Every structure is written in C-alpha cells, then in structure tokens.
Amino acid sequence: MVELAVSLTVLLILTAIAVPSLVRSFRTYQLNDAAGRLSDMLKYTRFEAVRRNTQVNFLMQASGGGWIVGVDANGNATIDVGEKQELIAGFATLLGGGVAPAPNAIRAALGGAALNTLPASSTSVTFDARGAIRSGGSVTANIYVLYIGSVSNPEFGYRAVILLPSGSTQIWTAQTGGPWQQIS
Fold this sequence. Notes:
Elements: H1 2-52, E1 56-63, E2 66-72, E3 85-88, E4 93-95, H2 104-109, E5 115-118, E6 122-127, E7 133-135, E8 138-139, E9 143-149, E10 158-163, E11 169-174, E12 181-182
Parallel strand pairs: 5-9
Antiparallel strand pairs: 1-2, 1-6, 2-3, 4-9, 6-7, 7-8, 9-10, 10-11, 11-12
C-alpha cells in the first residue's frame, strides 16, 4: 500500500510539472497555426489573381468572437459559401493595433516603412494580375500588418503577418514585452 501511495505521489508531481509546459506548447502551436493559415490564405488569394490574370480580393469579416478570412472569387464583396475561407477564432484571433508590442524591429527590418494595421471592422485587400497589392486602382506602397494573439492571455505572445506591396508575406513573433523576430 505504501509503494502504491509513493508511486501515485511521484506520478502526480511529474504531471504537475509537465502540464504547464504542455499548455504553453499547445498555445504556441495555436498562435503559429493561426498565423500560418492567415498567411496561406493571403498567398492563395495572390495566386488566384495571377492564375486568373485579374484582380481578386482578400476579405476579412468579423464573425462573433473571431474573423472569417477568405477569397472573394466572384467580386461581390462578401465571402460566399463556395469560396475558400478560414475562421480565425478561439484562443488565437486577429487583434487591432495597439494591443501587441510596438513593431519597431519590423519597421527597422523593412527600411523604416510605415505599417498599416489591419483589420478594421471589415477589410479587403486587392491583388492585381501580377500579384501586387492595389489600392484605389494603382499599385500601393503600403505595408500591412495583421496581429494575432489572445485578448485574454497575452502572456503567450503574439504573431504578426506582414503583407508587403509585392504581395509576399512574412511571419514575425514576439513575447508580450517584445522584441519582434522574423520566423518566416
């Protein structure tokens, strides 16, 4: 009986040590997954614009506690049922500006360029037939940043998906206090 009690005590101590590490790993995975899915959706939209040789919109629409992001393939300014889309919700969701750490390292790496934070309430980004970003009918020099994190648990850090004027994307990571580091 004593051996069983000692064994259970050791098992409980090991479990108590392992659980916080597993939770942290799971939360990190959720942040990386959301950033990867968002980046992939932007890349897919860009690819569709090039493949179709026409302008295609990437849309972000608020949906409950999260965001629906997707391709507006038919150009009707909404994400329809048959169009490719992702739900970014739950622990890791899109955040507005001012929540994540200041993007000084990102700005420095991009040559001091200004960063435009997305999303607003509903936002669209237009890719032209070459895959570049268009705004108001002309190719833009704007660099967009989309922050991903948890509103209720900021201690797990943040991710930033950077959309460059050429249409390419980068993913950056930062802990609550910063600094930002590029991961892809």
